[in-house]
Amino acid sequence: MADLHHRMTVAAAVLSTAVATLLAGADHRPARAATLAVEVGDDVQAAIDRAGVGDTVLLRRGAHRGPVQIAVPLTLRGEPGAVLEGSGEGNTVTVTAADVVVTGLTLRGSGSSLERMDSAVFLARTALRARVADNQIEDNLFGVYVHGAAEAVVERNVIIGRRGGRTSEAGNGVSVWNAPGARIVGNDIRHGRDGVFVVTSRGNEFSDNVFRDLRFGVHYMYADDSTVARNVSIGNHVGYAVMFSKRLTIMDNRSERDRDHGLLFNYANGSTITGNVVLGGPIAAGTEIAAEDDQHSAMLARARESSGLVRRAGPEKCVFIYNANANRFNGNHFEGCEIGIHFTAGSERNEIVGNAFVRNRHQVKYVGTRALDWSKDGRGNHWSDNPGFDLDGDGIADTAYRPNDVVDKVLWTAPAAKILVASPAVQMLRWAQSQFPALYPGGVVDSRPLMKPPPGPAEAASRRMP
Hints:
Structural class: alpha/beta
Distance between the termini: 85 Å
Largest sheet: 13 strands, parallel
Number of helices: 6
Helix content: 10-25%
Shape: elongated
Strand order of the largest sheet: 1-2-5-8-11-14-17-20-23-26-29-34-37
């Protein structure tokens, strides 16, 4: 009994001490977060240095001088019309503290050093959960550089990079390096090198962004278990280049009149690619091409421009699959490209079912001896040039579809043979193959082709972007 009484006494003392501590803390709560207004001409960095945790530094309308560094969790906000100008050296805003918000500003004037990663906003590794939102970011080398800042968010910004000059000397709209959980959402990005460049990261989301007048809309390397969704790429060299990554979800994206590729997969494995739309169309004369990137295409473009002609349709390839394995392509719509899908030998165990290939000049480019059947569980893909019939009305063509023949194989391996493509001998060979299927080479066959495009992306494809 004495031992029990002692324990109860000790417990009561501990409880009493805890209550007292809580009551004392209630009397010493931190002051409410303050707003420090900065007039034009005032020292912005001094105001940031005076601010405490959770405070807001508010820049009044007009042009303010940077650069600034933020080492305390606070909000740097601009009134409508507030501009923060860098010095032309280094970053305009450098963030090293966690939970910082940069919002409502026009940001200009970063340096021009690729080695130093000069940016409008630079989020260091310690800038965990930083948020860069609703800014106008223009004429900087990099727009936002997420350099190891896990769970950072870059959203609803307009990012306009530098025009002219060599593409290799330009920065990206948003760069992400080793920032698990970072999200790049709802931005409008134009000019510069790549819209979003991500390398060596994981668990990221890149969604609802618009990319124009860039090299790559999304350039993606060594970043596993992530999502690229509902983005729009218009008039770039490549819409979405996905490389050296695993277990991705690439869904509901759109590529329109991108020059070379809509979707490109290189060593991208175990991913789901669904609901994407790639639309090709004529690329008008005057479309920007950096000669350093493609000298042959640039020379052809200038020759055609001088004669008043438009260039060829773009993209050259709706989707290019190079040594990419165990991926699932389903419910995509590929239309109006020079080549619908370029599928290289070395890509294994890919499922390509339920897609629509519409009005591409060549539906498939595949050079290989192995036969690949692009159908599963009694269902294949839709091919707009399939002359087959559906006599039993089940929505499946009564005969298999073969996109390539012996002539195609010769043309892929020896392009100079195109001069003979209209000759009577070649036409006779193609007719003979159509009558005797055993003459077809190994390659792609769709044994259960769909008579109509699958619903979903095919319907959305008719609603072209302006």
